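User: My collaborator sent over this chain with a note saying "see what the structure looks like." That's all I know about it. Can you take a look?
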Amino acid sequence: MGKRREARECALQVLFQLEFDSTDVERSLNEYWTGKKPKTEVRDYASWLVHGILDRKADIDGLIKDTSEHWRMERMGLVDRNILRMAVYELLEEKVLAPPIIINEAIEIAKKYSDEKSATFINGLLDAIRKKLETRPSRTRKSKEGQHGPQKRTRGSNRRSGTGPTGQSR
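Assistant: Without extra context I'll predict from the sequence alone. Here is the result:
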């Protein structure tokens, strides 16, 4: 399993826990990590997701509500709702991954933690949200440089620039 997938699954579990007790996010994160030895990238990305989702929860939930027809947030299962929040946050803030990758990750996590019907529902809703976001005049991102793993340049990240590892054109 990739580091980001692992981080998303960790974040999902913390978000699920926070549905029942959201008084202390840091305590919940620390309790979750107790006894686990994740790679730094996994822990950083999961923490970035949890904090970002909670910081922008009203925006994220509003976007989900506006896009989902005949579905109130309260009617969605807790797991499905948090998978949606995670993917929408990434669609809004992730600077490295393309939207289809983010959506596919959400679908795969839904298949693992929910069921096939949920995966289909999540796919349709996220695709509609992706289209809605693409029509916005500018896709502004509120996170700060260097705040989390995705903003760091990593191996293979120069593919988008059209240059190879030495900076020469391909």
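A starting point for your reply to your collaborator: The chain has one domain: 3-136.
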